[in-house]
Design brief:
The structure holds 2 protein chains of 2 kinds.
Chain A: H1 7-23, H2 26-34, H3 41-49, H4 68-81, H5 87-101, H6 104-115, E1 121-124, E2 141-145, E3 148-159, E4 166-172, E5 179-185, E6 191-195, E7 204-215, E8 219-220, H7 226-262, E9 264-265, E10 268-269, H8 274-303, H9 308-333, H10 344-356, H11 361-371
Parallel strand pairs in A: 1-4
Antiparallel strand pairs in A: 2-3, 3-7, 4-5, 5-8, 6-7, 9-10
Chain B: H1 7-25, H2 35-38, H3 42-50, H4 69-81, H5 87-103, H6 106-117, E1 123-126, E2 142-146, E3 149-160, E4 167-173, E5 184-190, E6 196-202, E7 208-221, E8 225-226, H7 232-243, H8 248-251, H9 254-266, H10 273-301, H11 308-332, H12 350-357, H13 368-379
Parallel strand pairs in B: 1-4
Antiparallel strand pairs in B: 2-3, 3-7, 4-5, 5-8, 6-7
Helix pairs in contact in B: 1-4, 5-6, 5-7, 9-11, 10-11, 11-12, 11-13
The chains are: A alpha+beta, B alpha+beta.
């Protein structure tokens, strides 16, 4: 047992932190939130050159041969910097899914482009309604038509469709229980999207598949075996979001403690008041425990171990811990923290988005209940 | 990072588990909540000692096994899982032995460590006093030099396991003129010494949980001074880090945790979404606490005293224990109020015992408020209040 990062991971962390401190100011984040594209092509090229897209992919596709755990370190730093853009969609939702379930031909075809930063990917999983992560409630259909499939239906809260080149679409393949994952050209004119106005400005979209024709060869993995694939995609995505949130709350803890040391009232720093000290202690406990549970799940995914319970524990806990951290961070910052003049709101909004994505605490408590045999 | 155990560690866990299951099968004892501090069973302690499981991490030269802190955590975790009566040796094993190892003279090490390891020296602690709780440096018990001896006068309180302790590890003021943190020393006092007396204190559950311990002109030879004279306050801070470090803060009521889950399943209560939700939340909090405590063991394994890390795990975990008891009581409804021995009592009265007893968990070994002060100053560098 060892709960510290390797020297290489520490180096990766430092490189990422320095790079993002330089390139991803809050002014930049604001511009991206307000812009139509939501990302910068120049920065996208730069992070591809740094090898970030390919970090966790095998060398034979041009990747860095590193692990999901290494990627977790990078995602935490991205959360710390509030990095906008389609990295998560492309790498965690798109690329790692292709690596996991695609056939060799598909991997050869798509992964090198992804790793070079030439193509953007995303995943269309959730749909309108309130049973977002239950595959049995999926209504988007893929119907066989000669050698092709025709996909019809509506997906919701799909990130980055407006800039994506490829869309992984989770669809029902027969009326009973078959679920398939199809890789569609996102620029197909029969795919229509609307970018939603979200709190994090993170370009979640409604996507309408209007009888979209895709060849049978575009099925990722085996037909009707999508259910377990979706579970693994969900696990990676949930843990990935935990990493981002850990980055969010770690930075917010530091900002809040710094503020408590500087801000004076009654002629003394507010951080010398015991009530503020205890709030900060609670924030530190939530942050550390969030990190430990997140990295446990990331390590298990990295090692290919079964980790349904650990992922559920992490996403449920990090979501709750993050809510508490933000409640206290805002209380300690006082009124300046609820203005747009202060940076805190970037974290508050993004952490809420991450908490809602890929299952919240209620969702994962039920997963834990099942794992306990309840 | 690596969240797994080695093959040897897994084998050791299995060995401990097999031993404990066999003990239960033979009817030597039954799993109980709080058994680490209230289960007095010299036979059990002796059998644990025979396996070399007391002083597991101590050097072999003093009778220990020189094993890792992870091994010790595995051992204590399994004892807590099975609610084993380990109170006779717990304090000596957890902290007094370590204090002697860190600060004691060679003579003291040779006198006490091998006996603790053999399960032949039971220890209680003398820190708090009637006027001294969180503000430990205010203690008033005096130790005055008289030739080769110190003469000790004063009163200690909240001493767990006191009625069967053979020795007390106590702190007394040796220099009343010095600044208060710099005039305290640590002593080992034989409980049979003339002038030592004890009065039991009954806790809210009806158990004899502590004693008041009185020292009336108790003469202690100078060789029982632990460490340096007047350095006792710094030594006790170190010892408290260990006192807070362990799995007993999370799993002291594990038999109840396991029991209430089983109860919910058997009575089909777990189909109720509210109850499912509550139990799952407990499980999540349990797993998180587990990680915080393993982190503490790894800090010790690195050769550091666990400092704010054990303050964090202890503060977090005792809150978990309180919630566990509350949830268990909610699930049991009116049956929860029944005492052990009553008609209809569920789960051998464990829920009620924990509900009442857990109120003290966030007070003993450093209140949650003191622990958060430690986190604020030592982890976060916030200015003193």
């Amino acid at each position: 047992m060892k709960l510290t990062l390797t020297e290489e991971q520490e180096m990766l962390r430092k490189t990422a932190r320095d790079f993002l401190a330089d390139k991803c100011s809050k002014k930049f984040v604001k511009q991206m939130e307000e812009s139509e594209a939501g990302y910068s092509r120049d920065l996208w090229r730069e992070i591809a050159e740094l090898g970030w897209m390919g970090l966790a992919f095998p060398g034979k596709y041009g990747g860095g041969d590193m692990s999901f755990l290494d990627l977790a370190v990078l995602l935490e730093e991205m959360g710390r910097a509030c990095l906008p853009g389609p990295f998560f969609s492309t790498v965690v939702l798109g690329g790692l899914s292709i690596l996991d379930i695609g056939n060799e031909e598909q991997k050869q075809e798509y992964l090198p482009k992804l790793i070079r930063g030439e193509k953007i990917f995303t995943l269309a999983l959730t749909e309108p309604g309130y049973h977002n992560y239950d595959t049995s409630s999926i209504t988007v259909e893929a119907n066989r038509h000669d050698d092709d499939y025709i996909i019809s239906g509506t997906k919701l809260f799909v990130p980055d469709v407006h800039i994506a080149d490829y869309l992984l679409c989770v669809a029902r393949t027969n009326s009973k229980s078959g679920i398939g994952i199809f890789l569609a050209d996102a620029k197909n004119p029969r795919i229509k999207y609307t970018v939603l106005k979200t709190t994090a400005g993170d370009k979640l979209c409604e996507v309408v598949f209007d009888q979209v024709l895709v060849p049978a060869a575009s099925i990722l993995g085996r037909l009707n075996q999508g259910r377990s694939a979706v579970q693994r995609i969900m696990q990676r995505a949930a843990v990935g979001k935990c990493c981002e949130m850990v980055g969010n709350i770690q930075r917010v803890l530091e900002m809040t403690v710094d503020y408590a040391k500087e801000r004076k009232q009654f002629d003394r720093p507010i951080g010398s008041f015991q009530v503020i000290q205890h709030y900060c202690a609670d924030m530190a406990t939530d942050t550390d425990s969030a990190r430990l549970s997140t990295y446990q799940a990331a390590w298990m995914l990295s090692e290919g171990l079964p980790c349904t319970k650990e992922v559920a524990v992490a996403k449920a806990w990090v979501g709750q811990a993050s809510q508490r951290v933000f409640a206290l961070a805002h209380q300690i910052h006082g009124a300046i923290g609820v203005t747009v003049e202060h940076d805190l709101h970037y974290y508050t909004r993004r952490a809420k988005a991450a908490e809602l994505a890929f299952g919240d605490a209620d969702f994962y408590r039920e997963v834990v209940a099942r794992e306990m045999g309840l | 990072m690596d969240f797994s155990f080695t093959e040897e560690q897994n084998k050791f866990r299995q060995e401990v588990e097999d031993f404990l299951k066999e003990e239960i099968k033979k009817g030597y004892w039954e799993p109980t909540c709080d058994a680490w501090v209230q289960g007095f069973d010299p036979g059990f302690t002796k059998r644990v000692a025979q396996r070399g499981w007391i002083g597991l991490t101590w050097p072999k030269s003093y009778g220990g096994q020189g094993r890792s802190h992870i091994d010790r955590l595995i051992l204590t975790e399994e004892m807590l899982r099975y609610g084993a009566p380990a109170a006779c040796h717990w304090f000596g094993d957890r902290q007094v032995g370590g204090a002697i190892l860190s600060f004691g003279s060679e003579e003291l090490k040779k006198e006490f460590l091998p006996r603790i390891v053999k399960g032949e020296a039971y220890f209680g602690l003398g820190m708090s006093e009637p006027g001294t709780g969180s503000d430990l440096a205010s203690l008033q018990t005096r130790a005055v030099e008289d030739g080769d001896y110190y003469v000790i006068n004063g009163q200690k309180t909240w001493t767990s396991c006191a009625s069967f302790s053979e020795y007390f590890d106590i702190y007394a003021r040796t220099d009343p003129e010095a600044p208060r943190h710099r005039g305290i020393s640590e002593f080992i006092v034989d409980a049979k010494s003339p002038g030592v007396s004890r009065i039991p204190m009954i806790d809210i559950t009806g158990t004899e949980a502590w004693n008041d311990v009185f020292f009336d002109n108790v003469r202690v030879h100078k060789r029982y001074l632990v460490g340096e004279k007047n350095r006792g306050f710094y030594q006790v801070l170190h010892q408290l880090d260990y006192e807070r470090s362990g799995m007993e803060r999370l799993m002291g009521n594990y038999p109840l945790f396991e029991g209430i889950i089983q109860f919910a399943k058997e009575n089909k209560l777990s189909r109720n979404p509210v109850i499912r939700n509550k139990l799952a939340q407990l499980q999540i909090e349990f797993e998180v606490g587990h990680l915080l405590i393993y982190r503490v063991a790894l800090v010790m394994e690195d050769g550091r005293a666990p400092n704010w890390e054990s303050a964090m795990s202890k503060a977090y975990c005792t809150e978990f224990e309180k919630r566990l008891a509350c949830v268990a009581m909610e699930i049991l409804g009116p049956y929860g109020q029944l005492k052990l021995g009553s008609k209809f009592v569920p789960l051998r009265g464990m829920a009620l015992h924990s509900y009442l007893g857990s109120k003290g968990y966030s007070l003993q070994a450093g209140t949650t408020e003191i622990l958060k002060n430690i986190l604020a100053s030592r982890r976060l560098g916030l200015p003193s209040s």
